[in-house]
Amino acid sequence: MPITFSSSARAAPLPRSPLHDGIRTIVPLWRNDAGNNGLHDSVKADFENLGGTVTTGYQYQPTTTDFSTATTSVASQITTLVIAGADPNSVGIYLAAFDEVVSVFHSAANNSTLASTPWYGSDGVALSAALAGDSNAAAFAASAGYPNPTFGLPDALQNLWQPVANAIEARTGITADAFALSAYDAFFVVERALQDVGNLKDFASFKAAFVNAANAYSGVTGSTALDSAGDRLNADFDFWALRLTNGSYGWARIGTYTNGSLTLF
What we know:
There is one protein chain. By secondary structure, this protein is α/β, with parallel strands linked by helices. It folds into two domains: 176 residues, Response regulator (Rossmann fold, 3-Layer(aba) Sandwich); 69 residues, no CATH class. It is built from ten helices and twelve strands. α1 packs across α2, α4 packs across α7 and α9 packs across α10.
């Protein structure tokens, strides 16, 4: 039976997952680039707003290939927390990374503290072929739990998006994901904005028309209304984790986050 953790707060989906698991302190490990720095900052802010604690963690450079220093630092911070009285079961690791996650997990697997601590991931690793294709790293990920959120498709609208996804796959041989189908909806928003302004020469007018069109349109992925930052106001997220099936590791959808409600399968 699915387990649902609901809240009216418009927090990012990731902090809800460790809270649901009883995690009260996160030790972050993240790649030093604009996107992953942003993820670290937003997760820290949201998790702390929800009553959790985030330690200093460890930020590694994009050129890093040897992660022993990074993983040793994270393990040391966890040990310090436990010595200070923290319940080991209340501490988790947040990793914001890309395909270098494979090397991170190779290093972490050699540390008993890291191997016994739950890990949480980011959209940069969700559905990573590199991680799924490395049996040792995938085994560590599966053992650590390691859910990764990424933009998902609303189950309630499958009757709308599935025919479009089928048509795309029939023409291209590629399975259409949530991003492809969102681009499909975006095309219609652009078309309506162009109809309103006539051309792109007056970009300010086109921008305003685009926002108005997006706020009024509902496509195969649902409402395309935007918030003040220009992001979609409402969005579904899926959580993916590696699972062993028929002797090999693959990505499985283990939960959803819809309208402030986290449901884990």
